[in-house]
Structure formats: structure tokens, C-alpha cells
Amino acid sequence: MATSELTYEPLRVRLEQEHAALYSELKQEMLLNTLLPSSAAIEGAELSDLIVMAKSSFIPNLFDLATRLEKVDAAICSIKLGMYGLCADCEDEIDIEDLETDPAQPRCQHCREHSRYHHEA
Ligand SMILES: [Zn+2]
Fold first, then answer.
1. Dihedrals φ, ψ of 86, to 5°?
2. 42 CA distance to ligand 1 middle (Å)
3. Residue 86 belongs to a domain with what CATH number?
4. Containing domain of residue 33, as a range?
5. Roughly what angle, to the nearest 10 degrees, separates helices 2-32 and 60-80?
6. Comparing C-alpha atoms, which of 102, 101, 80, 105 is closest to residue 92?
7. Cβ of 17: how many Cβ atoms within 10 Å?
8. Which residues are in the CB-under-5-Å shell of ion ligand 1?
9. Mean pLDDT of the chain
């Protein structure tokens, strides 16, 4: 396990940085769009509540921000659970190249292609 923790360490740092950036951008956008009455209300809200609110706002920018933040947050959670780098569908290891392209990638290449095929059908 020590080896994979070292391998994933730079990815964890990237995820934490992206998470912080997305979170502050999301809060700012929600305030600009007056989804919540005050910055105090936004600061006091749970991240999961902000994500639900932003996604149900149907404001494209906010929707995209919230979707990405949710994905990054899930990846950070999986690091804490020791499940990072494992496909959410088949639990195979995700290629390190895929994780370097997108550290929040939750699925292996096989499952991504499979689900893309399904969504297009
Ligand atoms: Zn998979």
C-alpha cells in the first residue's frame, strides 16, 4: 500500500488544490446568482447542500462547477477510504495515465467506454 500512496500523492495534491479552487468559485457564483441570501448563509451551508442547490439551479456555469466539484470531492473521499485509483464500477485499477489526465477520473477505460456506449444508445 505504501507504494501506491506515494504514486498517488501528487494526484492527491492536485485534487485538493482543484477542490479548494472550485469550492470558492462555486460559493462566489452562488452569491452572484443570489441562490442564497448572504455569504454567511453560503459559508454555513454543507458542501453537499451547495452542490444540490447549484445543480438544481439550471444555471449552466453553476451546474458545471457543482458537477466537477462533486467528482473531485468523491475522489478525495476515495483517497481517505483507501479506494482511490480503483474503478467505481468494476473495482479494477484505473490506468495511472488516465489519473494523470484527470485525477478525479472514477472509472477505468473499459467501463468508461461501456457507459458511453450505453448513454449514446
Ligand atoms: Zn471499470
1. -105, 135
2. 36
3. 1.20.120.910
4. 2-120
5. 150
6. 105
7. 12
8. 87, 89-90, 92, 108, 111
9. 91
What's the pLDDT tens digit per position in 66-89? Answer: 999 999 999 999 999 999 999 999
C-alpha 36 – ligand 1 centre gap (Å): 38
How far does residue 94's CA lie from ligand 1's centre (Å)?
7
Between the CA of residue 52 and those of 43, 49, 103, what are the distances in Å? 15, 5, 23
Contacts of 17 (CB under 8 A, 6+ apart): none
pLDDT band at 118, cuts 50/70/90?
low
Task: Confirm whether pTM is higher than 0.90.
Answer: no
E strand or H helix that includes residue 88: none
Q: Residues for the chain: how many in total?
A: 121
Tell me, in angstroms, the distance from the centre of ligand 1 to residue 95's CA: 10
**29 CB-near residues (< 8 Å, 6+ apart):** 54, 59, 61, 62, 65
- The number of domains in the chain is 1
Q: Give the separation between CA 42 and CA 91, rounded to whole angstroms.
A: 36
What is the whole-number distance in angstroms between the Cα of residue 51 and the centre of ligand 1?
A: 26
Q: If you measure from the C-alpha of residue 83 to the centroid of ligand 1, how many angstroms do you get, rounded to a whole number?
A: 13
